[in-house]
Write a structure and sequence with these properties.
Elements (H helix, E strand, L loop, with lengths): L7 H22 L1 H9 L10 H33 L5 H15 L6 E5 L2 E3 L10 E5 L3 E7 L6 H15 L10 E3 L2 E5 L3 E8 L3 E11 L5 E10 L9 E4 L8 E8 L5 E7 L4 H16 L20 H8 L3 E2 L5 E2 L4 H5 L1
Parallel strand pairs: 1-3
Antiparallel strand pairs: 1-2, 3-6, 4-5, 4-7, 8-9, 10-11, 11-12, 13-14
Length: 335
C-alpha cells in the first residue's frame, strides 16, 4: 500500500534551485580563476602561465575542500537523522545510500510495519533502495535478472567491489530478511512482507456431513504464528524409568530463587512418551545427562526464523476463483 504521496515536483525544484544558487555563487566568487583555467584548453596565447597555474591550484584546492566538508556532512547527517543505524557498517552504508539519493540514483525507500509495506509511488524506482522493517515483520526480496549485454558483467564487477568495501550484501535471491535496516540492491524488489505476530482467522458457516449423512454447519477458527518458538514442557518420571510413568511438571519460582513443584499432569500421548524415553536412554548411555537448569523466559518480541518466513511467503494456494490466496488463509482452510 502507499502512504501519502510526496510532492516530487516541489522537492526537485528545491534541490535544483539550491544547486543552481551554489553554482552561481561559485562562479561569482571564482570567475577570474575559472577563466584562467578554461583558457588553458581553448588555445589562448601564452599556454600554461604562472597566473593560470595559480588559478588552477586554487580551484583544485577549493574543490578538494568542498569534497571533504561535503563528505563529512553526509556522514554526520547519515549517523544522526536518516536511519536507525547501530553499527559502523550500517553508518557507512547509510552514508552511501544518502549520497546515492542526492545524486538522484536511489531506488525505493519503504517502511514495513506489522507485515505491510508502506511506500510512495515516487520512490518506486530502480536503484539501490532501503527498507526499515519493524520488529513485528519480515520481508522476502527477489532480484530480477539483468538485461543481456556487456553491462551485466560490469554490474557483477561493481557488486563485488561494493561487497568487498562493505557497501553491499552477498548476492542471494530470494533473500529473507528480518527486523532492522535492509539495504536493497538495484534490481531487488519486495516479493512479500510477513507479519510475525500471532494471527487469528475464522471461516464462518462451514458445512459438512456426519457419518450418518446429517448436514452440520459450524464456524472454523484457528490461531497460528510463525514468530514463536515451539512450546517446551518439562517432564520427569513418576517412579520407575518407563514410558508410561512420564509426567509433565509445572514449577513456581520462589523469592529465594528455588523452585517449587506445583503439579504433575499425565497429558503426553503414546508417541511422545516413547520418543522422550528413547532420548533419555541415549543420554544416559552416553553419560550426557546434565543437572537441571530452569527454562529461559520466552521472548516478548516475535522470533524471526528464515525457514518459516520463506515457507510462508511461497505457500501460495489458489481458491475457487483461481486467484492466489495469502498464506494466512491456509491454516484455517486446513483446520
Amino acid at each position: 500500500m502507499y502512504i501519502e504521496e510526496a510532492s516530487t515536483k516541489r522537492r526537485r525544484l528545491i534541490i535544483g534551485g539550491t544547486v543552481f544558487v551554489l553554482a552561481l555563487l561559485f562562479v561569482i566568487s571564482f570567475g577570474h580563476e575559472l577563466l584562467d583555467f578554461l583558457s588553458i584548453f581553448v588555445g589562448s596565447p601564452g599556454g600554461l602561465t604562472e597566473t593560470r597555474w595559480e588559478s588552477t591550484v586554487k580551484l583544485g584546492y577549493q574543490l578538494l575542500e568542498f569534497l571533504v566538508f561535503f563528505g563529512f556532512w553526509v556522514v554526520l547527517v547519515s549517523q544522526q537523522a536518516l536511519l536507525p543505524v547501530a553499527t559502523a557498517r550500517e553508518r557507512l552504508r547509510a552514508a552511501f545510500q544518502f549520497l546515492v539519493f542526492i545524486l538522484g540514483q536511489h531506488g525505493q525507500a519503504v517502511f514495513v510495519k506489522d507485515g505491510r509495506v508502506l511506500s510512495t509511488k515516487a520512490d518506486n524506482r530502480d536503484g539501490p533502495g532501503v527498507a526499515v522493517v519493524d520488529f513485528n515483520s519480515a520481508i522476502v526480496l527477489e532480484e530480477r535478472l539483468p538485461p543481456p549485454g556487456i553491462g551485466s558483467g560490469f554490474d557483477s564487477l561493481m557488486h563485488r567491489l561494493m561487497w568487498s568495501l562493505g557497501l553491499a550484501d552477498r548476492a542471494e535471491s530470494p533473500r529473507v530478511m528480518g527486523p532492522g535496516i535492509v539495504f536493497m540492491r538495484p534490481r531487488e524488489r519486495i516479493k512479500t512482507a510477513v507479519d510475525l505476530r500471532r494471527q487469528f482467522r475464522v471461516v464462518k458457516e462451514v458445512t459438512g456431513y456426519t457419518r450418518n449423512g446429517i448436514e452440520v454447519s459450524a464456524n472454523v477458527w484457528s490461531i497460528f504464528t510463525i514468530g514463536q518458538e515451539p512450546d517446551v514442557v518439562q517432564v520427569s518420571y513418576d517412579g520407575e524409568h518407563r514410558p508410561e510413568n512420564l509426567r509433565v511438571l509445572s514449577f513456581e519460582r520462589l523469592p529465594d530463587g528455588h523452585l517449587r513443584l506445583i503439579s504433575m499432569s499425565d497429558e503426553l500421548d503414546r508417541l511422545d512418551r516413547q520418543e522422550i524415553h528413547h532420548f533419555f536412554h541415549v543420554l544416559e548411555y552416553t553419560h550426557a545427562v546434565k543437572p537441571y537448569t530452569p527454562l529461559p523466559e520466552p521472548s516478548a518480541l516475535p522470533v524471526f526464523n528464515r525457514d518459516r518466513v520463506f515457507a510462508a511467503a511461497y505457500a501460495e494456494a489458489r481458491g475457487e476463483d483461481e486467484n492466489p490466496r495469502p498464506w494466512t488463509e491456509l491454516p484455517t482452510r486446513l483446520a
